[in-house]
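Recall the central idea of this unit: under ordinary conditions, the amino acid sequence of a chain determines the structure it adopts. In this exercise we apply that idea directly, starting from the sequence alone.
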Amino acid sequence: MDPVYDVTDNFGSFDENGNQIGDGILDNPGDVIFFKRTRTGQKDNYNLSVGFSATWSHPLDETLQNKCKEAAQTNIELQKQVTANKRLDFELARLKNCGQLLKDGISFHPRSPYYKICADVIVRDKSYITPHRHSIPSPSTSSQHVSRDAADLGGPLKK
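Accordingly, the structure predicted from this sequence is:
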């Protein structure tokens, strides 16, 4: 049941003949005149739905798709190269800094967790020569030549 309110406006002002007319303000605001039945139209509703949906698409122009894949692969390779370059820069900076510190006699204590940062860096003196061997061929005995003149030794002679 819905209430029906009084919306009459018969009083509050006068016309040119002196008769009472409405002034735009309700005469009995909030008064309920009567109640009326309201039809909601609600009914019991039961629904069961089962569905299936599938989509398949095929590009009409595979050239653009192939170019997109090629661009993506190029970008991946570029990112890998940038990462490798940054790793190389890091290792070279570590080598340089650790080497300089070791030359200056500065290092972490062997029990320090940071000791291993420079543990694989080797500093050698500039005059250090790695051990190696040279083979020297022996002169053959069949071509023994004895020089008796300085010109045989080669080079210009000065007097």
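The mean pLDDT is 86.
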